[in-house]
Recover the amino acids of this structure.
């Protein structure tokens, strides 16, 4: 079954150093960054076929800051069998969270991205607010929805994993998940120990430092579950291909598929043609993100 990865918005209250949003604004300035929410009506018209899952995460924003996120989730629940939401969870009220979980059920998941202890997670999740996150967790664990604490190891928090896992259990979180990142700069001061690094790191570092692009491709899009819709209303085969470093040079930008002008089934038809030739055409975003030594 088909799944969608939805970038609900480009809005966020945080300023995470390795986030594409932060990097873009540092490079091009805030005035060149568009603040936009996914158009709900267009999204409804776009989905013209059965879908299994809808995941709200994205490259640029935290989905809970979409101006009508509760409506978007409610509509999405009617389209699919399960919804997942990835968020830091900061700065929403208890009442808002109660409204959200009333829409969801035990097939749905809310993942809280909190990288560290309540005292140090803001070393990366800059502007995060623990008190409001804790309120969100308390509401969610008291509901039917499944809850996950996602923890990315960094230099500053790699020794806190065990204690934070205990804290997550004390708060009633269903699952504590350590997610190893490979989003590192060359000689990155945030980089943790080598045993806490993501699997794509070797490929990406050699791509960056040596320009090596001869890796084999092990495409994650084979699952058919990550068709990406951006906040500005464009289809891409995955979130990696929508990253600005690749997007504006790709065929998906040159021949854009807007959800205003195309349907999901039309986008997937094009995707299947793209996927059939991926090993021959070897797009740079595929090599960088799905390359394998």
């Amino acid at each position: 079954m088909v799944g969608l990865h939805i970038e609900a918005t480009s809005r966020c209250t945080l300023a995470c150093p390795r986030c594409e949003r932060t990097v873009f604004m540092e490079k091009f300035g805030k005035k060149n960054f568009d603040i936009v929410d996914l158009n709900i009506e267009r999204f409804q018209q776009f989905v013209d076929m059965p879908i299994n899952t809808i995941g709200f995460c994205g490259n640029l924003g935290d989905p809970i800051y979409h101006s009508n996120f509760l409506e978007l989730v409610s509509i999405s629940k009617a389209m699919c069998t399960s919804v997942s939401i990835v968020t830091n969870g900061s700065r929403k009220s208890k009442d808002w969270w109660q409204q959200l979980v009333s829409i969801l059920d035990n097939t749905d998941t809310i993942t809280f991205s909190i990288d560290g202890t309540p005292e140090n997670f803001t070393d990366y999740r800059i502007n995060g607010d623990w008190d409001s996150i804790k309120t969100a967790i308390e509401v969610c664990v008291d509901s039917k929805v499944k809850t996950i604490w996602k923890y990315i190891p960094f230099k500053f928090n790699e020794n806190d994993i065990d204690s934070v896992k205990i804290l997550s259990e004390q708060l009633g979180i269903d699952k504590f998940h350590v997610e190893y990142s490979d989003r590192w700069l060359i000689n990155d001061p945030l980089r943790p120990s080598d045993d806490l690094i993501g699997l794509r790191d070797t490929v990406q570092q050699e791509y960056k430092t040596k320009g090596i692009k001869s890796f084999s491709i092990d495409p994650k899009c084979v699952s058919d579950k990550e068709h990406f819709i951006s906040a500005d209303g464009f289809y891409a085969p995955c979130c990696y291909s929508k990253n600005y470093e690749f997007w504006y040079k790709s065929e998906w930008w040159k021949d854009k598929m807007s959800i205003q002008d195309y349907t999901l089934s039309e986008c997937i038809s094009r995707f299947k043609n793209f996927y059939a030739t991926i090993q021959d055409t070897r797009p740079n975003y595929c090599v960088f993100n799905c390359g394998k030594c």
